[in-house]
Amino acid sequence: MARKISLQNTRNIGIMAHIDAGKTTCTERVLYHTGKIHKIGETHDGESQMDWMEQEQERGITITSAATTCFWRDHRINLIDTPGHADFSAETERALQVLDYAVLLISAADGIRGQTETLWRLLAEYQIPTFVFFNKMDQEGADRTVLYHSLRNTIARDAVDFSDYMGCLPDSGTANPAYPGDANRMYSTASAFYDAAAMCSEEAMESFLETGSISDELIRSMISERQLFPCFFGSALKQQGIKELLLALDRYTAPRLYPESFGARAYKIIRDPDGSRIIL
What we know:
The model is unreliable at 174-180 (pLDDT under 50). The chain is an alpha/beta fold. Strands 2-3-1-4-5-7-6 form a seven-stranded mixed sheet, with helices on both faces. Helix 7 packs antiparallel against helix 8 (202-211). The protein contains ten helices and nine strands.
């Protein structure tokens, strides 16, 4: 039986990246963690759920955007996997029209590339709140500190590292593996997080100076208004950092405000293998 989720708890989230950043691999892990699939398909084997076209399976790349629905905690997530190759950027831009939030993947091995900057400009143009995920952190030479400062010095001055902080939250469902049970270290991590987030807006700074923390509601508002960009580090292939990303999407995304009159926007029309028309 289908789960009934209100529009208030429905999020349209797009996953975007430059080519070979591991975008479809990340999507597969999200679907696996949310229980949408029970077997992970690999892009290089032509078995990923989202690359359904024969050409995509043969080449191991995403050519057309694909959408699916999964559920995480109390939220319904309409997930849109977009092409990473610059030749198919029209497909990516079309999907931006219906997104509530975007997850921008950056390969830790490649860093910020020209296509990354192009995608960032498009996200800014359409005013899409954005989460950043540095993928492939398991590869040799991936330096978290260097990547984080590179992000802040190039495209996202107001990026804030959420990775460790998510493990400090009492309802995260997971202890931070770096320091389980270490209350002092967890307090230090939370304080450092609030300190960084406070630099993104005057209201956040006032809250931090007065209370020593920043409310979830204010963080949520800052993300929605593109004043703050959550940043995560992990390896989708090894399922590292995916749960923290999902926890943040659940905790720090706000519902879209819809008009009272009924309406919908179709951003794409495709046909399934049987020839039936599907409107997305």
